[in-house]
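Re: your question about MULE transposase domain-containing protein

S., sorry for the slow reply, the queue was backed up all week. Below is exactly what I fed in.
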Amino acid sequence: MADTIVDDRAVFTGFDSLTYAPRGIEITLPNSSEKHYIPDVLEELKPKKKEHLPEFSCEYFTDEENCLVGLFWSDGESKRNYQVFGDIMSFDATYRSNRYSMVFVPFTGIDNHNNNVSFGAALLASETAETYKWLLRCFLKAFGKQPDVVVTDQDPTMKKAIEEVFSGSRHRLCMWHVMHKLSTKVGVTLCNTTDFKQRICDIVWTDSLSPSEFEVGWHSVIQDFDLSDNNWLGDIYDMRESWIPAYYRDELMSGLMRTTSRSESENHFFGQVCNVRSTLLEFLTHFETAIESQRYVST
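Result:
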């Protein structure tokens, strides 16, 4: 599959556009010979509530063989959420969504009750920097402004895209994603049979320390457990200003960025939507049902 963007094939704003979408626009799904007409796909994406229709946005692009590479969508309720709660936004590409091995990328924020709210979503068949740039440009076009803070995992291609497209945003790494790897990277035995994990968590999951106090505490733990040769620990320490609260404790909403329950809830919620056996239309139906459920709980 080509990594270059060949055709920005459609931009739909409001579902009146469906009336004019040619029936002949047909795309092939990645890793499959399955074909879909664009109006059929958009019909599945269409918000079920009429008040969400006028502000609905959808964009997609294909490669030179007319194979779907990216699909982005957001409705009116998502845009209204973003206007109120869009100071901080996370986007996560860790979900394999369907039988075509496409990556599901939800854009998520936090409301004033510390609940997750959806700003939009995308499906990607290619995870290059160029693809992520396209996706962030779609987001910017739909919402009209960059978030103050963007939270992602450690993907370097995301970092490159954010630096170019969201140049006015501060990029932070999700603490939950980093710390979730701890046992794997240093060993289950060390984490479960010593006080290593507790000591690391005590200096990571707090904003009561100054940067210098964090650094002293970190080096003390590394020295006490003879971990100076652990490359992963060295790497995350080098990136400490991007994910350790000691370096941004005065930043707006920094407390929400270190909330493990929120990240765990988000992973569970979207994990239920994704099924490697789902067709595209089945996945979109599951997503719409899940979002309506999320909105009902938040009301």
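Residues 1-25 have pLDDT under 50 and may be disordered. The first helix runs from residue 38 to 45.

Happy to talk it through on Thursday.
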